[in-house]
Amino acid sequence: MATQRYPTSHGINDHLKKQAQVVVVMVPLPAQGHLNQLLQLSRLILSHKIPVHYVAATTHNRQAKQRVHGWDPNAAANIHFHDIEIPPFHCPPPNPEAKIKFPSQLQPAFNASFHLTKPVSMLLRALSCKARKVIVIYDSLMASVIEEARFLSNAEAYTFHSVSAFAVSLYQWELEGNVIEENEVFPRDIPSLEGCFTDEFTGFVNCHYSKHGKFNTGCVYNTCRVVESAYMDFLEKKTTKEGIKHWALGPFNPVTVAVRSKSSKKQHFCLEWLDKQAKNTVIYVSFGTTTTFDDGQIKELAVGLRESKKKFIWVLRDADKGDVVNWNLVIIIM
């Protein structure tokens, strides 16, 4: 009869310690708002001494780390950035004259994210052999990339929604063929989502959303119940039968960040001017970093600001530089 070899007590302890580990794998969509939110969520998870593996294309990992505010991911322990090399893709400039204002210039980057599927699958398989539990938190538009998780017995996958619970509720409502009208969930005069997205992006969304139900333990939102309890309740009722849980863990974006020049202790003159304004008299309005206004819209907004008779700072992207990021925000002094 063959003799079975048992590990020593030291080996057993090492084995149990190894198997008891829980790891988290973050898979963001390659757009700044999505990259940043999952990076901020990573920071929260790291505070609980849980290792995080952040997976994206090399260029997008670099972008996420360079643009993050409030902390330095490079100095943080237990966060592992997996730089995936993907084929080059075209990056067209934004088109301010497009009829649909969705930032279609980002679509090539979204499409290129499908190249992450094989590397992510290999990573999940490797981690599943080392950890007792592998938790995958993936952007709602990256479901196809993490399909390998459904074949691993010790893996759980959670969908991350970077938009508000209201936006997700509205999308679900219209997806079912319902008409937006005043009811206990949606207020009156809410505009439809029709015409907000390009056909190509709609196809991209449908490709990923069709795979959510196959392996989804729960949903995480960058929001809080104090603000969006009605819509969180709405989404929970929608998935009661499936047993899917919903967590409002945000907001993840830091709200107090000192903005100063690295080369000088002196603040930008705009910030110095803002510091002189009375408390609770400043309103910050952002149209998003991917919104592109045409000349007519910019002119109308300028007229409105002038007619408001209020002091304001308005930041616009320099179209001549062809910068994809469209800083279009208004700070109004009441």
UniProtKB/TrEMBL annotation:
<dbReference type="GO" id="GO:0008194">
    <property type="term" value="F:UDP-glycosyltransferase activity"/>
</dbReference>
<protein>
    <recommendedName>
        <fullName>Glycosyltransferase N-terminal domain-containing protein</fullName>
    </recommendedName>
</protein>
<comment type="similarity">
    <text>Belongs to the UDP-glycosyltransferase family.</text>
</comment>
<dbReference type="Pfam" id="PF26168">
    <property type="entry name" value="Glyco_transf_N"/>
</dbReference>
<dbReference type="InterPro" id="IPR058980">
    <property type="entry name" value="Glyco_transf_N"/>
</dbReference>
<feature type="domain" description="Glycosyltransferase N-terminal">
    <location>
        <begin position="21"/>
        <end position="254"/>
    </location>
</feature>
